[in-house]
Amino acid sequence: xxxxxxxxxxxxxxxxxxxxxxxxxxxxxxxxxxxxxxxxxxxxxxxxxxxxxxxxxxxxxxxxxxxxxxxxxxxxxxxxxxxxxxxxxxxxxxxxxxxxxxxxxxxxxxxxxxxxxxxxxxxxxxxxxxxxxxxxxxxxxxxxxxxxxxxxxxxxxxxxxxxxxxxxxxxxxxxxxxxxxxxxxxxxxxxxxxxxxxxxxxxxxxxxxxxxxxxxxxxxxxxxxxxxxxxxxxxxxxxxxxxxxxxxxxxxxx
Length: 254
Known about the structure:
By secondary structure, this protein is mostly helical.
């Protein structure tokens, strides 16, 4: 028990230090993180700058835990993309440029969170609702990334989401039970970060629900609009995170 209290005390101390950091320190942290991402070839320079600017905006509106959600999505997503990359390449489902993301992809996955961050600055009285919606967008983004990147590798049976008939692994709109469960795990992770910052309440469940809806929406859009080349992958990702955030937000008014 003494050990646990000591660990908890250290964690609280670290969080207090992070909360008290001046804006220039956060800016420096984002610049260092962006530079490392470019150095590790996870992001292009334009993507890194876009991510850093979105990160700063998110910090202004949601503080450290908002930034933690963004960072968790990026780190977990990068690991998922790199995991079994050789297998994905052989299957023809690997990300181009070895998973190095461009500015458009950053905006597609985190742009909705940035928009809700801006709304907190415009309408600060509804900040908490906007932060919940922001968490819903990250819940959707991470669920989609994990289910796509890992479901295609660890899934055993694959189905077209519109017909529920068996379909080819890795095609747009194709899901697996394993992928959906892995995606759900990602949504739970974002919800736990939210809970750590803002408390365990009904919003935690809303965030998980919104992430699941956003993830399934991404598959539906992929099976319809993207397969018909009516919308690109970035557009699908942006729209699905928007749907996930709005689904989360709608539950707040029930």
